[in-house]
Amino acid sequence: MFLATSLSGNAHSVLADIDPIKRKDYQSICAALTSRFGTENRTEVFRVQLKNIRKRRDQELPELAQHIKRLSRKAYPKAQLELQEMLSRDNFIDALDDADKRLSIHQAHPKTLDDAVKLAVELEAFYIADKQRDKPSSVRNFAISESSEVSGQIKTLSDVVEELRREFQFLKSGMSQQRSGFNNNNNKPGKRGCWTCGETGHIRRNCPRYDKSKTNYQTKRQS
């Protein structure tokens, strides 16, 4: 009665399927629960899972080994411990995601699952260290390539700036020559001429034909 009242969820539904008379029998309840949740009737399912299991990328090797060991016991519940150990070892090696690791561990001939796990961890550490050793070289080559590309861009920009500078100097020189020629034309003696007689070589106030008194008289009348 204590077992029957403790069941819940799917287990409680199993109890509901039992004959009312057998619900009061402890052995009958255990048999029904074993038939529903036991592993004896699911060995083929566990064997298929064990055969198809593969290491996930984020899965640790000890975690994988523990999972395989548990599946081996469920897939072969009546097998001897030595046989279960051998099956766990072989399935662990086959579950590794790297062919080189699998070959290396097979060649080492580990006797137990723990030995295979130890070899796999050592190989994984070796591969990680080897990749880390090669990484600085790759980073250095990448840095050199980036530096060369940046240098090429800087050289291109420098050439463009130099070309613009030469063009600016050319334009500046042409403007200076135009300005100089304009000033020279305006400052040539005799170019303007006298406003009174029209001759060149002097201005109006120095003209011998210029009557200053008449100009003063006209100025006074206007004032």
Automatic annotation (TrEMBL):
Domain of life of the source: Eukaryota
Pfam families listed in its UniProt record: zf-CCHC
InterPro entries: Znf_CCHC, Znf_CCHC_sf
Residues annotated as domain CCHC-type: 194-209
Family matches, as PROSITE patterns: ZF_CCHC
Assigned keywords, A-Z: Metal-binding, Zinc, Zinc-finger
Protein name (Swiss-Prot/TrEMBL): CCHC-type domain-containing protein
Organism listed in the record: Mytilus coruscus (Sea mussel)
